[in-house]
Write a structure and sequence with these properties.
The chain is mostly beta strands. It contains one helix and nine strands; from the N terminus they run H-E-E-E-E-E-E-E-E-E.
Length: 144
């Protein structure tokens, strides 16, 4: 996983004490703060990723030249520290070099991340655990 933490973003976040997230995953038949398009640009190579989270639990990702189709599930409510646990499966990796300079075919890969939004809901971090130790972002909402 690509790891980036922007200091200014982290300074706005409250201190973190771990608590287990609610394990109530759901189909996104109703709006969730994650639904929509989000953009992140890797500073090291100015490569841009776009994430399109859909209400039906599908996710399209473009990372540099790579495109993937994914499925995802996310908890209904965040934990007491604001983290949403999200599970992902890459259904199809169409190839190409991604923003991490990898050309690996990740079709079938499954992983879990923890998403935390800034207070406005216009940005989020994606973290390996429900804390701010290993995250990338912020991803910014694309208004269309």
């Amino acid at each position: 996983m690509r790891v980036h933490i922007l200091s200014w973003f982290l300074l706005t976040m409250p201190a973190v004490t771990l608590a287990a997230p609610e394990a109530d995953y759901r189909a996104l038949g109703e709006a969730h703060p994650l639904v929509g398009k989000w953009r992140w640009t890797r500073a090291a190579n100015s490569c841009t990723e776009v994430y399109e989270y859909r209400v039906d639990g599908t996710l399209l990702v473009t990372s540099g030249d790579e495109k993937t189709e994914n499925n995802f599930a996310i908890v209904r409510n965040p934990d007491s520290n604001g983290f949403y646990e999200a599970q992902f499966k890459i259904v199809k990796d169409y190839g190409g070099k991604d923003c991490a300079d990898s050309e690996t075919d990740d079709t079938g890969a499954e992983f879990t991340t923890y998403v935390i939004f800034d207070p406005t809901g216009a940005m989020y971090l994606s973290c390996q655990k429900p804390n701010l130790d290993a995250c990338f972002g912020p991803l910014r909402r694309i208004d269309e």
